[in-house]
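Researcher: Batch entry, complex prediction.
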Amino acid sequence: MPTQQLEQIDSVTLSVVNNAFVNVCREMGTAMMRTSYSPIFNEGLDFSCMMFNTRGDLIGQAEFCPTMLGSCQYAMKWMLDEVGLDAFGPGDVYIHNDPYRGQNHLPEHLVVKAVFWEGKPWGFVGNVAHVGEVGGMAPGSFAADATEVYQEGLRLPPIKIMDGGEYVRDLWKVILSNHRTPKTSWGDYHAMIGSLHVAEARVLELLEKYGGDFLSAASDQLLDYSERFMRAEIAEMPDGVYYAQDCMEDDGITDKPYWMRLKLTIKGDEAICDWLDSDDQARGPINATFVVTAASCYSGFLHVISDDIPINSGAYRPIRIVTRPGSLVNVKHPGPSVGGNTETHPHIQNVVLRALAGAVPDRISAAEGASSCNFLFGGFHPEYGDYYTNYHIEGSGWGGTVDHDGNDVLCPNNGNCRNTPVEILETKYPFVVSEYRIRNDSAGAGRFRGGLASSRVFRVTAPEITINALFDRTKTQGPGIFGGEPGTSSGIFIKKKGDTEFRRFSEVFGTVSDSKFTRVIVTEGDEIMLNSAGAGGYGNPLERARDLVEEDLRQGFISRDAAVKSYGYQG
Amino acid sequence: MSRWIENDAQWYEQRMVHCAACGRLIAKHFLIADVAGERTTFCGEGCEQIYRDYVLTERGRDYQRPADVMEQYRELMVP
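Model: Structure tokens for the complex:
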């Protein structure tokens, strides 16, 4: 392929190039999954692989976490602005996890490596991953009662972690000295960096095949194509101003709700997402970073348009964000934000979809469960002796849509992660999972009901384990839409050894919040129940097809009482 | 008239500058513009434009959310 061919590239070739970029990212993901140490990566897939051009635009991605894919361009652009393109040499790897500089929250680390072609950087390959333990006040680095970022773990500005292919040993020592599980972090960082090497090799093959100028022109044209695509989709929506709001039930510090509010303006082929009516930032760690809010807006729009669009920075250009620094949707330094990603993020995205319901009512879904049910634990393993920590998440229901029931027991759609199999949990950590089931009557009724929630019980098999939790929706419910009913609330409960029933953590341990707490010590024989939240239904439940009601009854998804009460079932 | 300037904070300082439109923290280079007689900071030309065209006209420079904002939104949301 001639390298000077810079005119408009035909759509077939552009499509081939786009798919090649997607495949590079998928192969990175496979390398990451197979070589990482932590279940959060090799089972949970809480990472995303991507490609950037030298301006920091996202040019390639695959089916990873929407939150990371919406925010990574900000982290990359920040890195380029701060350290400069010239700072990147062959074999260098930069790392960065600063939530104020473009990361969703502190545990997520971006590593990037420049791909050199003809002596200069052609672009970057990157991997954003939620490192399971980065220090701070709580094992697993999810401090539900943190009041500042310094309690959440070790914060890294954009810095070089590999220099010309060699370890920057002093930095590695500092990082690993601040993590509770340095051996695991060592393995996980190498999996992240290894995925960059895989991607670099594949991008170099593409550069050999197409040439640098051609591939740059193709990626630029893909950005422009995606922008035109998104503009055309927005232009088809009716012009107007649409509103939505939702709240976080508390922040772990103060027992009051915190509200996020969107005034969405659709005008021509652009959208303005104005969050200025949101509450001020919370003292606790439910604050969203700016990029969480931006990614929620992008993800919300991607949910309601054709999925033929190549997802890259071009797709985001017509969506404008307006926020106030120091608010729930744009945390200001040194405010904490670890739960702003996993918890507030799905709420924000639900608000975006709720606002879009005014414009495209047949393309949105009702609210999802919107809590990752973050459950973190750590301690010395009674058999292995090592200190361990783990970040565990639960699936909740997804909202009903115009023609489908919501998906059951899936991690929030902003995260797109998987659950961890019981066998893996029991092998690696001193718990027995004594129960894991779908909760009946947990879905919001509707013409198409919400997705169902789950219930899981962990029994402690070690002398003691330190646990932390950061849930939401334990006092609120994911609302239904157009007559649909809300889903059930989530919850975390404790049954001390010898007790006969589960109780709230505030009752047993005196925690301020029942859903957000840290450093609670549980002991052998105690049981912890994690209930995820059900999702809202879409449309009037009385209009639900009778055969679907009967199938839910047969499956045990709803009780006969609920069938009668919510669906008017007379069978 | 706007112009790009570089944050002159030393490497050991944490001097935070936010965009007046999108609200995000700005890395190193930011745009200074005179907007309605006030020196205003942006992360780029796009945000300067949205500030002039939307924020100033729809919200005003020092917008404060109204006390009954929750009720207002409740009435304006789709059911």
